[in-house]
Design brief:
Layout: E1 2-7, E2 21-27, H1 30-39, E3 44-47, H2 50-57, E4 63-66, H3 75-79, E5 82-84, E6 90-92, H4 102-113, E7 117-123, E8 134-136, E9 139-143, H5 161-168, H6 180-185, H7 190-204
Parallel strand pairs: 1-2, 1-4, 2-3, 4-7
Antiparallel strand pairs: 5-6, 7-9, 8-9
């Protein structure tokens, strides 16, 4: 069985359709990790810093998925940086911040040292990517295997929580103390998560595709 590490797992949008895999999920927020565990009780869930866990344990897996925090890279955040006041003047509502370069640290670590297959996911950035990714939907994907392009149905991303819940297939109404809408918005589309895992298997388990 394929040993998979799901870093920054959130509530598991990317993992939802994965089958016949042994998953270790890493999430530093215990409340979010508990929700993930409710949806995927057979996965091993560890509450810890995903960036540090990757450095210490990357050699233990066949496939690694990483979705490090994206706001500091987001094109949307920069486009929405300025807001117009009623008098027509503008104010800065999103303070400039340094992009979190742990994203590229993980890409370089995996590309340089990991012998298995890997995927690092992030949002489309406000700058030209320092390392060329694949672009599918509203995401960038850095991998060490080819990803065939597919059409992913979008929509409902900025809708109310009921519509997003229906679209993503997660009912979070029983959970409190977390930003449910943000958790849903951060979910990678399930069919995209499955597609990328399957693409990696063409190299890991080629007999499945004969």
């Amino acid at each position: 069985m394929l040993k998979v590490c799901n870093l920054y797992c959130g509530i598991g949008g990317n993992r939802k359709l994965w089958e016949n895999v042994d998953v270790t999920a890493i999430e530093n927020n215990k409340a979010i990790a508990d929700i993930y565990h409710d949806f995927f009780p057979l996965d091993k869930v560890i509450v810890t810093d995903a960036h540090e866990y990757l450095l210490k344990h990357f050699e233990e897996f066949d496939f690694i998925w990483s979705s490090p925090p994206c706001p500091s890279h987001s094109r949307v955040r920069k486009l929405c940086a300025w807001k117009t006041n009623p008098d027509g003047t503008k104010r800065l509502q999103n303070k400039p911040i340094y992009p979190d370069m742990k994203l590229y640290e993980e890409i370089l670590l995996l590309d340089g040292y990991f012998k298995g297959k890997w995927c690092v996911e992030n949002v489309i950035s406000f700058y030209e990517p320092l390392i060329k990714p694949y672009e599918l939907g509203r995401h960038y994907f850095w991998t060490n295997f080819h990803i065939a392009n597919i059409q992913i149905k979008g929509g409902e991303h900025f809708s109310d929580i009921e519509k997003i819940s229906k679209r993503k297939g997660y009912n979070l109404s029983a959970y409190s103390g977390v930003d449910r809408k943000l958790l849903l918005r951060n979910c990678v589309e399930e069919h995209l998560g499955l597609h990328i895992l399957n693409e990696s298997k063409r190299d890991i388990q080629p007999e499945l595709f004969k």
